[in-house]
Every structure is written in C-alpha cells, then in structure tokens.
Design a protein that fits this description.
Elements lengths: L2 E3 L3 H5 L2 H12 L16 H5 L3 H14 L5 E4 L2 H6 L3 H4 L4 H13 E3 H8 L12 E4 L3 H6 L4 H8 L5 E3 L14 H4 L1 H17 L4 E4 L2 H13 L5 E4 H19 L1
Parallel strand pairs: 1-2, 2-3, 4-5, 4-6, 6-7
Length: 250
C-alpha cells in the first residue's frame, strides 16, 4: 500500500522533527512514507477567514498531491479535519467534490492510523517521565480521536501519565482566532498553562503542533521547564531509549 505523509505547514516550517519521527516509527513496521513535494497548506487559514476561492485553490493542490495514495497520515488533527470541509467547498464542482470525498476517506491523524489502521498500541517504548496530555479540539471533538493516544501512552514503560485539569478546554490558539482575538486567546492559554503547571509534569504531550506551540510559548514566558512534545516525538524517543537500554544489557 502507498502511505503518504501530509506534513502540514507548522511541522514542515517549524517542527520538522515531528515528520521525521513519524517516518522512522512507521519504518519499523515496514511502511515507507511517500512525500509528495507538491503538497502545500490545506487552506484552513483562508477558509476560516472567509476566503473560499483561495481555500479551494489550496485544496485542489492537496487533492492532487495525494490522489494516488492509499492512506494519508498527518501529525495534525486540525489539518486532517480541514479536509472534511473539502466536499462542502466543492459542492458546485461535482468532479472535485468526488475527489474530495475520496481523499477524506483516506486521511488519518497519526495516532488514529497507528491504532485503528495498523492495530498497533504498544511500540515497545520506554519513557521514564511524568507526562500530561492535552487533547486538541479538532482531533478529539471533531475527528473523535480520544482513546488512541491514551492507548499508546499507557503502553509506554515507565511513563507516569497524570490527568490534566480541564483537559478538554481549548488552549486559545484556534489559528486565526489567536490573531483576531488576541486578548481572549492570551487569557485562555494562560489558564491552560496554569493547569499544566498544576500537574507537576515534566512533559506535556499532544497531537497538534499549533496547540503545543501556543502552550509552550506561554510556559517559556513564565520560565516553566516543562518539555513540550508531539506524541510521535515522545514515542520515537521512547523506542530509541528502549533499544539503547536493550543493547547495553546485551
């Protein structure tokens, strides 16, 4: 099967390690991720701002990029769900609407792909740290990705998973919302960061770099030493640690 990586703008431009760790983890199970160079922004910023013409142009590029893929895997629930808007965007262009529907069926957020498509919940990782988890809005509420990250984290040896108070509250990022309503956004992320600090966790983990970037920025502003990681980064570090530990014992 042909599995492609939909990297998303933030991961591509700011957090490339997220894509790298996804590729290395999946390679352990015989999956070589394709990377169509033509891919670009999913069109979400334009769509959320009411610029549907520009959003459709971006959407057509994404549809074309992954037209031949059997599965498309992405590190962002937000960008994955944006593709669910494509059929509506092309309701007056039946040919593109059908292509959008076909793409929608094969796009999966990373943890969802691991657990539901590949049937993998235990990667043999070891990560002896205190961790708390932030469920991003699009991934958990709209895609319904809830048990998958929990299953993966609960199978990491040595990891102490502590509940995040008011975990399902939005972090305040919301893409263009953080720009248009910066005061409200700032208050929301301050509250979210306070709950992260309450857990006394060493690491905050999540599924979407937009949210994690927002929370990490506020934690740094408050000089809090909480490490912020995408789930793929944590799992890969845990697998590498486990491999090294096993090799040393041998």
């Amino acid at each position: 099967m042909k599995v492609s990586l939909f990297i998303t703008c933030l991961s591509d431009a700011i957090y490339p390690r997220v894509g790298e760790t996804m590729m290395r983890l999946l390679a352990r199970y015989g999956i070589v991720l394709e990377f169509p160079n033509v891919q670009t922004c999913c069109g979400q910023p334009a769509y959320n701002s009411g610029y549907w013409k520009e959003a459709r142009a971006a959407a057509k590029t994404i549809i074309h990029a992954f037209e031949d893929s059997d599965f498309v895997v992405t590190p962002s629930g937000s960008c994955a769900y944006m593709i669910h808007h494509y059929p509506e965007m092309f309701k007056e262009e039946p040919e593109w609407q059908e292509k959008a529907l076909q793409l929608q069926k094969k796009v999966f957020e990373f943890s969802n792909f691991l657990v539901e498509v590949l049937g993998i919940q235990d990667l043999g990782a070891r990560f002896p740290h205190k961790v708390t988890y932030h469920p991003s809005c699009h991934g958990s509420r709209l895609l319904g990705v809830k048990h998958e990250p929990m299953a993966l984290l609960n199978n990491v040896e040595g990891l102490e998973l502590v509940p995040l108070p008011f975990a399902e509250d939005c972090c305040g990022f919301g893409g263009t919302f953080a720009i248009k309503m910066s005061d409200i956004s700032g208050a929301m992320v301050a509250e979210k960061a306070e709950h992260v600090i309450e857990t006394e966790a060493e690491v905050l983990v999540g599924l979407d770099m937009g949210c994690l970037m927002n929370i990490a920025g506020h934690l740094r502003y408050r000089n809090q030493p909480v490490r912020v990681m995408h789930l793929a980064e944590l799992l890969y570090e845990g697998v590498s640690y486990s491999d090294e530990h096993t090799a040393n014992r041998a």
